[in-house]
Structure to design on (99 residues):
C-alpha cells in the first residue's frame, strides 16, 4: 500500500524532494509502519522525526491525519482510511517554540 506524506520544509530539504513523498508501507498502514517506511526510503531522516534508540517522537514534531492530531498515538495505531487509500496525506509538522 502506498501513502503520501507531507514533510515540513526543513525535512524536504534533507530528502531533496520538495513535493509530498510517496511511501510504500506494505499491508499494515499504521503510524509506526509509515514512519518506519519513511526512514527506510530516506535514511537521512533517521533521528530527525523520532529518537534513534527509543523511536519516540521528537518533542517538536507533530503528526496529523485527516485533521486529527496523532502525535500522542501509539505506533500500532491504524491510520484513517483516507490516508491508507492515498486520498489524503499524513502530515508531519515541525512545531515552533520560543519566547
Amino acid at each position: 500500500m502506498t501513502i503520501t506524506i507531507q514533510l515540513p520544509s526543513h525535512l524536504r530539504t534533507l530528502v531533496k524532494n520538495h513535493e509530498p513523498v510517496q511511501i510504500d508501507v506494505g499491508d499494515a498502514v499504521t503510524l509506526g509502519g509509515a514512519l518506519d517506511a519513511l526512514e527506510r526510503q530516506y535514511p537521512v531522516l533517521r533521528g530527525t522525526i523520532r529518537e534513534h534508540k527509543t523511536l519516540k517522537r521528537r518533542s517538536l514534531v507533530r503528526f496529523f491525519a485527516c485533521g486529527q492530531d496523532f502525535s500522542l498515538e501509539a505506533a500500532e495505531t491504524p491510520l484513517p482510511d483516507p490516508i491508507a487509500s492515498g486520498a489524503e496525506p499524513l502530515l508531519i509538522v515541525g512545531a515552533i517554540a520560543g519566547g
In short: The longest helix spans residues 31-41. The mean pLDDT is 93.
